[in-house]
Amino acid sequence: MSHRDIACFRIIRKLMAHINKNQFAQKKDYFEMAPNEQRDIAASSYTLCADLDENFKQFLAVFNKCGDIQCRQFELNTAQQGAFIFISGLGDINAVDMDLLKYAIESSLTGKSEGLSEDKKAAIQSKLSFTSQTSWSDDFRASVEGILSGKLAVLLDGFTQVLLLNVKGLETRSIEEPATEAVIRGPRDGFQESISTNISLIRRRLKTTQLKLEMFTAGKLSGTDIAITYLEGIAKESLVKEVKERVRRIQIDAILESGYVEELIEDNSVSPFPQVMVTERPDKVVGNLLEGKVAIIIDNTPFVIVVPGTFFQLLQTPEDYYQRYFVASAIRILRFIAVVSSLLLPSLYVALTTYHHEMIPTMLLISIASSRETVPFPAFVEALLLEVAFEGLREAGVRLPRPVGQAVSIVGALVIGQAAVAAGIVSSPLLIIVSMTGIASFLFPSFQLGLAFRLLRFPNLGSSSVFSQKLNYAKCSIKKS
């Protein structure tokens, strides 16, 4: 054997070892996967065949240990074998038990079919016309996803395709007015947890073909449906393209609420300020669509995302458009005043009463000084204690049952506040300031925006104490020099 043959043999041996090593690594990775990931690979690798028993076994293997899966085999009057599979909690039992078998038994099929016939497919769909949505699928993975979405899969012997019937029967709550966005004048309907119902609430207000709707699916385990809707010709194409791209980039195991999508598509998830608008009102979404915005509807949540969100948009309510312009303008000005007050009132009080007495009128300064004679804490600590107590009472009122929560808020505001003033722990002027701040924070139409200002109030309070002290020392040094 020549040296050239020996060299070629060594190269071939190295290549074979490398190939075997890669195959072993792939097998090792497969067996180290979670069972659900192995089932996904099995579902994607299997191809539907004409053998009913083989297809049925593959479906049972994928849905192994799933107690809510209902499957049944049946025989038609022409000896045609069949089976159906669906999830009991997502499908309508009456439609499955009564209508499906009734129409299946009355099927006009004759004998076994060796292949897939378009005439026989049409005959099956005509017999099963009790449901408005029927489709054939030759993809095993797509059929599994259809069953998980609440559809019923019908398998017939001799057919290489699966008939998917929409028999969704999931219970949903009725359409009600949103509790967080109540208005005096305006529609009383609100979104609910069903994406199809939410889409219909928008469609009934915009009876135009310009209203476009594109469906996406996100979440590896949840498979949540996401709809992007906009008005063609009004919304910018660049905006629509950007929203679609960000939704496609979502990589997460499950989406349980619109907050998951909001954090994954916004520009800066660290900022406390909301960068999108979230609402439960269909009229508010339609109003923003008419202004060129894009709405993102997520299944299993009544909150719809509207992008892009602006600061001034978060201070508007749908009722502003239903009132006269000067009335709505006056109310908006009042909201801007409330925004400034909720952020700066406690900080201004601490800064003025501690380091800048000359800016307070004499009579008011005397009243404040007399009320603080028995208070053992500095103004900063006093304000911090009151703010923490107020936020705690507000959170307790939200989390407790509604009758108990209202009672806790009233007791906390009246009894505890009055007792704290009488005991000399806090002063009356600061209690008034904190109460005014709390009232101003209730004027925010957007809960997320109000929450951001509530959080920023505490670092702003500390900054007013620290930087005002440094400014006061700088003034004293200038006067001495």
Structure overview:
The protein has 481 residues and is an alpha+beta fold. 52% of the residues lie in helices and 12% in strands. The chain has helices spanning 3-31, 35-45, 52-62, 93-105, 118-127, 140-148, 195-203, 237-248, 258-265, 282-290, 325-355, 362-371, 379-399, 402-422, 428-441, 447-480; strands spanning 69-75, 81-87, 134-137, 151-156, 162-166, 211-218, 224-231, 277-279, 294-298, 304-307. The strands form 2 sheets. A 5-stranded antiparallel beta sheet has the order 1-2-4-5-3, sandwiched between helices. The protein has a 5-stranded antiparallel beta sheet with strand order 6-7-9-10-8, with helices on both faces. A hairpin with a 5-residue loop joins β1 and β2. The radius of gyration is 33 Å and the shape is elongated. The model is unreliable at 3-9, 11-39 and 108-116 (pLDDT under 50).
Give the gist of this structure:
This protein is an alpha+beta fold and 481 residues long. 52% of the residues lie in helices and 12% in strands.
Labels describing this entry:
alpha+beta, 5-stranded antiparallel sheet, 481 residues, elongated, disordered N terminus
How much of the sequence lies in strands comes to 5-15%
Task: Give the SSE order as H and E letters.
Answer: HHHEEHHEHEEHEEHHEHEEHHHHHH
What overall form do the CA principal axes indicate?
A: elongated
Strand order of the largest sheet: 1-2-4-5-3
Global structural class: alpha+beta
End-to-end distance: 101 Å
Largest sheet: 5 strands, antiparallel
User: How much helical structure, as a percent, in the residues?
Assistant: 40-55%
